[in-house]
Amino acid sequence: MQLAQLLIFLILFPLIAAFFLFLAKKDMERALIVKLSALAIAIVSVYLLISTYNKGALLVSVIPAEPTGILMFIFEMLIAVFILYLGIVHKKWLVVALILVQSVAMLWFELVYAHSVHVQSNLFIDEFSNIMALIIGIIGCLICVYSLGYMKFFHEHHPEMPDRRPWFFAILFVFLAAMFGLVFSNNILWVYFFWEVTTLCSFLLIGYTKTEEATTNAFNALWMNLLGGVAFAGAIIYLAMFGNGIMGLDALLASGKVIALIPAALIGFAGLTKAAQLPFSSWLVGAMVAPTPVSALLHSSTMVKAGVYILVRLAPIFQATFTGYMLAMVGALTFLIASGIAISQSNAKRVLAYSTIANLGLIVACAGIGTYEAIWAAILLIVFHAVSKSLLFLSVGTVEHRIKSREIDDMNGLIVRMPKIAAMMVIGIAGMFLAPFGMLISKWAAIRAFIDVPYGFLFVVILAFGSAITLFFWAKWMGKIITVTSDSKNIEGEVDHSEWAALVSLAGLSFITTLVFPLLSTKLLEPFLMTNYGHVAQLSQDNIIIMILMLLLLVILPLSILIPQRKHKHVAPYMGGRTTTHDMRFSGSLGVQKKTVLSNYYLHEYFGETKLRTAGVWICSAVIGVMFIATVLRGVIL
Amino acid sequence: MINIVWAIVFILVAPVVGGLVAGIDRKITAHMQGRVGPSILQPFYDVGKLFEKEQTVVNETQIFYAICYVIFMIFTGALFFAGGDLLLVVFALTLAQIFLVLGAFAANSPYSYVGAERELLQIMAYEPMVILTAVGMFVATKSFNVSDIASSTTPVILLIPGIFLGFLYVLTIKLRKSPFDISTSHHAHQEIVKGVTTEFSGPSLGLIEITHWYETVFLLGFVYLFFGFNPLIGVVAVIIVYLLEILIDNTNARVKWQLVVKSSWLIAAIVGMVNLAALYYLSGGVP
Questions:
Q1: Confidence check: pLDDT of A150 > 60
Q2: Crossing angle, helix A304-313 and helix A127-134, to 10 degrees?
Q3: Which of A523, A536, B88, B202 is the most buried (most CB within 10 A)?
Q4: How close does chain A come to B285, measured CA to CA in Å?
Q5: What is the per-residue pLDDT for A161?
């Protein structure tokens, strides 16, 4: 009973907070509600871990399916009517068509099949759900706290935008509630309900500023996610028609590949849309128009993580099937292509967006492969990506407010101009691609997982190229930040304390997660893998010690700056013998003063966005097509 | 599995061996060019002189990055010779290399900046092949541990000859040999002054030189792994490979970075794919 209360608390409490936030009009009240609720949610999600620790998967059957199911259905229909209305007002006929198809399908299900479906336990919790809950509860809440400072600054500097902050914060918390619901639901109908709520929330948040661009991009995100929703509804109908009334995730996983493969492929497709895999990557890039905390939330702890969550959940079904390999191929190609596009991007947020798409691709590839080693890598990727990516988004947001630009080239010499935030950003970037931080451990795990499966060498080759590309765009960004421009002034000023608290906590988490990763692996991942696969994956003791050694070196070495040294002789950089001032100005040939400007390589010729994306969209669509044809044929043959 | 003794031997002996290799390299190069050349101890005299000079910097952070570069390169080599995990060695190597790039970026100087960007292009060019080499060795010997690979009785070279050739191709980049010395070069003919090392001088340049010796020994150790089944053949092979690199260095003009990246990637993709596919086929699908 106590467990049920905890789960329900995590789903309902953010909703209550959202309600009060919607009513709170004063900054003070809002700050108080956000901070207290964030604290409560974070504490309860940690407590949930403690109370279910070492107990494996626990099913919760005390919550009756009815009238909860009916309530959810009514909400679904209300959401559908709302989207239908917006679609008609904005003349987005694709959205209208998709929401109609989806609603008719669900209505049909409700009328014809609903009574024949019976799910014993509607909610559940296991180690994987626990990890997701921690990500949502801690990182999600930190982002909400950060938003307080950010949104205040945002509206002070954009007086032309309507200040709809009560609405904004309410949606943030509804989003968290939906994510908790999604990772705790065993009933697939419930998963679907929360799935649709996240789609709606992301749509509302992307369109927050109500500019033309924001509205267009919000609808772009909406139709792609609704397409996924249609596939999800298709999976539910298929299960109802041919699945002997199976509607629980546990039952689906236990039902064998003959029944489960087609619905898993359909839900997998929905996962691809939500995780912004090619050909559906453009919605996540377009979502950049929203205020930065929204991007941080969408990219790290919610939305896209819902997509990969469901794929990892269903991974045992995909394992060693052609469907699984094709799904993995979509992920692997997305990893490669999105990483390539990131090289050509000069806008920091777009680089982050493409890097998210790429890393999700890697997670999808692991889920498609579906072996215990691959799943181990996938879950590690989810955790570490959430930490580093939220840190990066939030620091870019803070920098953006001070330098009025998101261009990486404008971040030249950030270490001098804003040393503290630059340090945060460097930690975030290092976390994304350097040993011994988490993302690299996970990539390493992915390589090992891929080697051990048939045709795995194809994925290994793709991963080898993708990670080399990744290295290029992160390192050149890092180089920009740490460039020392000796004439610059410190313009950091007072960073809002809520922003600062979130940044420092996340930077701390980057180190802590890397340090406690062996614990995370043995105490949470291994039991999960043992239950679901009967095998465990782990790193050898030696390697863990070596990585901790590297981490310590990386922590200690920067401290050496504190050691007083004798001053060295300073000279101006070499400029081909020209006389140059210390701020890099020199006389041009006509005696005109010129300033040296250094810019990164973007290699548009080879990694141009349009070219690569077009190729990616076609190739990945074809792979998805082959996946469905093969899945259906297999179903027919069997 | 990890053998600390070998790590310590590497840390102490590698600079001596690396410096001698550099000296012999210069001697042979000189003979190829019809010169007498310096003493084979010349690299030690050069580095010794660098340490006697006054340290001049554009800014203090450069020294920090140079020190990190040395430390992590030593770490990489020590981990390799101690018999550690080959993939972890590759990642540690990348980390070391990134510190050199950051040092070049930190100076805010046009020449070292271009050098840094080119250095990154080089890393991007060789990284896939290096990872695939590690994977190839795993598939051939069923282990990622250098200790297991080195003591394996399997003739690794016969199983992954394609990967060996691919590795030789990118080895030229790693050793900063012509035609692939696009970010900095030991030759007098330069394009971007001294590239990544433009703004390093005196003791910090000396450190980078010593790091290069460590790296050379580590890379030659990597070559040896292909022949670990027979130490004698291994040592001979390493010598031949290095002589071949000197020959290539002296008979080729520097190419543009585009060709470096394209050709390394093409070769990595082809030999990686074909050789790994062949191995999987031979071992009957799943290893």
A1: yes
A2: 170
A3: B88
A4: 6
A5: 84
Please write down the HEC assignment for all residues of A328-346: HHHHHHHHHHHHHHHHHCC
Q: Do A465 and B269 touch (CB under 8 A)?
A: yes
Are residues A460 and B107, on separate chains, in Cβ contact within 8 Å?
no
pLDDT, tens digit (0-9, with 9 covering 90-100), for B270-284: 998 899 988 888 776
Other CB atoms within a 10 A radius of the CB of residue A615 amount to 14
Which residues lie across from A59 on neighbouring strands? A124
Predicted local distance difference test score (pLDDT) of residue A638 = 61
Q: Is the pTM of this model over 0.90?
A: yes
pLDDT-derived band of residue A581, with 50, 70 and 90 as boundaries?
A: confident
pLDDT category at B286 given cuts 50, 70, 90 is very low
* Angstrom distance (rounded) from CA A558 to CA A556: 6
Instruction: Closest CB to B285: pick one of A436, A454, A570.
Output: A454
Please list every residue in chain B whose beta carbon sits closer than 8 Å to the beta carbon of residue A541.
none
* Structure token digits, residue A609: 């966005």
B259 close contact with A: CB closer than 8 A: no
A489 CA to centre of own chain: 35
pLDDT number for residue B287: 42
Mutate to test the interface with A, among B95, B256, B275 (most CBs of A within 10 A): B95
Radius of gyration over every alpha carbon of chain B, rounded to an integer in angstroms: 19
Residue A610, Ramachandran bin (φ over 0: left; ψ between -120 and 50: alpha; else beta)? alpha
Helix (H) / strand (E) element for A5: namely helix A2-23
Nearest C-alpha neighbor of A316 from the set A257, A236, A381: A257
Category of A124 on φ-ψ map: left (φ > 0), alpha (ψ -120 to 50) or beta: beta
| Residue B49 Cα to chain centre, angstroms | 24
- On the question of pLDDT at A249 being above 80, the answer is yes
Peptide bond just before A564 cis, omega within 30 deg? no
Whether the CB-CB separation of A147 and A3 falls below 8 Å is answered with no
In 3-state terms chain B splits into helix, strand, coil percentages (rounded to 5) of 75, 0, 25
The yes-or-no verdict on residue B209 having pLDDT over 70 is yes
| B211 token code pair | 């790091």
Section A405-431 average pLDDT? 90
Alpha-carbon distance of B167 to A242, in angstroms, equals 53
Interface test with A, best of B120, B174, B270 (most A CBs within 10 A): B120
Beta bridge partners of A587: A593
Q: Which of B63, B125, B277 sits opposite A457 (nearest CB)?
A: B277
User: Residue-wise over B221-259: b if at least 16 C-beta within 10 A, else e?
Assistant: bbbbbbbbbeeeebeebbeebbeebbebbbeeebeebee
Q: Which residues of A touch B91 (CB under 8 A)?
A: 435-436, 440, 444
A40: confidence class by pLDDT, cuts 50, 70, 90: very high
Q: Which residues of A touch B286 (CB under 8 A)?
A: 452-454
* Mean of pLDDT over chain A: 90
Residue B285 Rama label (left phi>0; alpha psi -120 to 50; beta): left
CB B86 within 8 A of CB B134: yes
Specify whether the CB–CB gap between A526 and A127 falls below 8 A: no
Burial group, residue A191, by CB count within 10 angstroms (0-12, 13-18, 19+): buried
Element (H, E) at A175: helix A165-184
**Which chain B residues have a beta carbon less than 8 Å from that of A595?**
none
Strand ranges for chain B from DSSP E: 56-57
CA of B269 vs chain A CAs: smallest distance (Å): 7
Nearest to A349 by CA among A403, A287, A303, A306: A287
pLDDT digits 0-9 by tens, A521-573: 888 888 898 888 888 877 788 888 888 888 888 888 887 777 767 778 888 88
Place of tokens 């949104």: A151
